[in-house]
Amino acid sequence: MSAIRRRHSPTSGGPLRSLSLHAIVVITALFVGIPLLYGVLGGFKTTRQLSSNPIGLPDPWVPENYTGVLASGSFWRMLWNSTYIATLTTLIVVAVSALAAFVFARFAFRGREALFTMFAAGLMFPFAVAILPLFVLLRMFGLLDNPLGVILPQAAFGMPMTIIILRGFFRAIPGEIEEAAILDGCSSFGFFWRILLPMARPAIATVSVLAVVNSWNQFMLPLVVFSDDSLSTIPLGVQQFQGQYSTDVAKVMAYIVVAMLPALGFYAVAERQLVSGLTAGAVKG
Amino acid sequence: MKTTRPRSHRLRGFTKILLFLLPSLVLFFGLVVAPILLAFYASVFKWNGMRGLPTDFIGMTNFTRLLADEVFLGDLWRGLLLIIFSVAIQLPLSLGIAMLLNQKIHGRAFFRLLFFAPYVLSEAITAVLFMMILKPTDGLANYILGWFGIDPLDWFADPSTVMMSLFIVMTWKYFGFHMILYIAGRQGIPKELTEAAQIDGATGWKTFRYVTLPLLGPTIRISVFLSVIGAIQLFDLVWIITGGGPSHSSETMAVTMFQFGFKRFQVGYASAISVVMFFISLVFALFYQRYVMRRDLEGASTVLGDQR
What we know:
The structure holds two protein chains of two kinds.
Chain A: H1 2-8, H2 15-42, H3 47-52, H4 64-71, H5 73-106, H6 112-121, H7 127-140, H8 147-171, H9 175-183, H10 188-199, H11 201-217, H12 220-225, H13 234-244, H14 249-284
Chain B: H1 5-42, E1 45-46, E2 56-57, H2 61-68, H3 70-101, H4 108-120, H5 123-133, H6 140-147, H7 162-187, H8 191-199, H9 204-215, H10 217-232, H11 236-241, H12 253-263, H13 267-292, H14 294-300
Antiparallel strand pairs in B: 1-2
Helix pairs in contact in B: 1-13, 3-7, 3-10, 4-7, 7-10, 8-9, 10-13, 12-13, 13-14
């Protein structure tokens, strides 16, 4: 076993060395894992148990914190709001960016590269730069306390990354396919819709996953756009709940653990797309 | 009909391109470019942000006030501090773990999944989780410190430890993301190169230092770039955990901007902060792409290759 390892991996040495390398990984795993585990177990304790016995198993197990969250209507409403906003954001950003990426990938016209660079430059600007004037604009358009006030800006700021990734993919599809389609009487849009998009399904999945995760975790925009609690998304709800029950630590823990579940579930399903999207985006951005 | 055929043809092509681009142009100009321009405009006015456009023109006063403001200068310093921490501690950690997980370690798929998981959680959830773990008296962190005989810390409540505590949270949340970048970069290096080095007698460390590390250059540069942009715009974690306190000791540019723009209604002044953030990002990005990533952008970035 160790001989095989030595052959395949340049940095492994003797058994002692490999033991210490393992130790580093395990320590890091504890650093990452303990906070999560502490949250999950903490949710099953009472707040008094938590301060007297922070690290052990709950004794007795108290499921009320969790059942309380699951039974509250406000949690399910937030889950719905987050889902609704993430879905619409993703649909819009992918549709709009795919059209643009198609043009940038397959049409030759003057000013194309300049236009593309302009979109790509959007990537450099942190969202925080624009939030204040964005708020002023959204107020002018009457989009405050309206899900569209979050959806449209998210889509706009998600476009640069999506266009860059999709353009790269569209470019890789051979020109012969397009020629054949045009010869058979396909219009540009027909080619885009019936041939390019179906072929680009993996890339579409990748950018969609990125858009969902970004929308799901967005905090600043809903914070300024929604003053009506019934529109709150999960990150807003988590912050509010913490403010409301800051002394009841166990209750807050149960709440954030439940709030984590949709994101972790999504991660378990879409990990590959997420990783490929992030690495592709990082390189091409 | 005077128009010749090719011209009408070209016109049709132009309309087609315009139709395809229209939705993205409208969104981009309306919600990305326009706000940035509006920030520029508002930054030279004294304005409480009420309806209509600002009228009280005061020239560069907001900017001179900004550059004399201790809190803002502190923001710049703290931003720099976070960047230094990230580059000096977080990135080597991510790189090291990525190299370890690239080996045939037991359960490496599990470790990779675990280390990347915090990245998927929202900043809000991360913030609240760590507010409880790093609670001043009876939090988990102080309990664990107690095993080693270390006195309990006040973490976020003490100006002298608040930045360190924030950095711990940032490392927890983001190092897995950088690790993923490095793993992808490492996988893009052809096996032949490291094998050749070993046949030539290079030790593990030398192979890493003289073969792997240089070839990871583009990934490292990207990772540094993303850390810096992230530090410039850091908001969510700070806002939820400390709100910038105690007494401004953890405030960032974005938090200061938010305070003035949304809490104190000094929208002109807050816009000036936005403009400065814009220029810092712009100058940094241009400088970095021009001098640091130049070679990577000239099609030499074969390292990550095509991940799709």
